[in-house]
Automatic annotation (TrEMBL):
Belongs to the Cob(I)alamin adenosyltransferase family. This is Corrinoid adenosyltransferase. It catalyses: 2 cob(II)yrinate a,c diamide + reduced [electron-transfer flavoprotein] + 2 ATP = 2 adenosylcob(III)yrinate a,c-diamide + 2 triphosphate + oxidized [electron-transfer flavoprotein] + 3 H(+); 2 cob(II)alamin + reduced [electron-transfer flavoprotein] + 2 ATP = 2 adenosylcob(III)alamin + 2 triphosphate + oxidized [electron-transfer flavoprotein] + 3 H(+). Its EC number is 2.5.1.17. The lineage of its organism: Bacteria, Pseudomonadati, Pseudomonadota, Gammaproteobacteria, Vibrionales. SUPFAM superfamilies: P-loop containing nucleoside triphosphate hydrolases (SSF52540). Residues 2-25 form the Cob(I)alamin adenosyltransferase N-terminal domain. InterPro entries: CblAdoTrfase_CobA, Co_AT_N_dom, P-loop_NTPase. It is found in: Cytoplasm. The keyword ATP-binding applies. GO terms for molecular function: corrinoid adenosyltransferase activity.
Amino acid sequence: MTEHSKEDRYQQRQQKIKAQVDARIDQANIERGQILVITGNGKGKSTAGFGVITRATGHGQRCAVAQFIKGNWACGERNLLSQHGVPFYVMATGFTWETQNKDSDTQAAQVVWQNCKQLLTDESIDVVLLDEMTYMVNFGYIDLEELCQALSQRPAHQSVVITGRACHRRLLEIADTVSEVKNVKHGFEAGLKARQGIDW
Ligand code: ATP
Ligand code: MG
């Protein structure tokens, strides 16, 4: 095949792909806030959630973050984003597997949840990250029905990102976009210590 005909075939193929992509872009014309779930056993769920908050903040949108479970841990994203006006609502008792007290954990989750409920009615907020929310539902600290109701009644333009493993089926159903991060391997299994800038 000559160089010329190779080039022609390449162009034809690219044009076909472009036509298909353009047709699909034309079909996606609903504009509203979205619910995104990032779940699964692999690393990268919270990183992705914070990525959305960073992206939206970069466009001048107003964002807020609720952190369940690892509240009192250091957090690079919190250091950065709070300097850019993003409020953080952090679960006071922090790491729940250490406290092992259902009543105090429930209470701590409920304090943050009250803030979340307010965020989910606030017209001025564009994107909310509910980091590690899936565990709050699975442990029974936050009522699933109440969460679903708050999500469905939120302002139409507001988007919400939910992260955490083992996301409840109901949340998967009401979400617009669900991504599952698969664990292929993790350095921790080979003895690598959690690292600043990589893990927190
Ligand atoms: P990250 O915050 O790095 O995006 P994540 O939100 O997907 O991770 P979590 O379940 O919230 O994962 O756990 C957070 C911590 O646990 C991080 O330090 C992360 O590196 C570590 N971690 C995540 N997945 C795994 C895994 N499959 N094996 C071991 N450690 C993991
Ligand atoms: Mg996480």
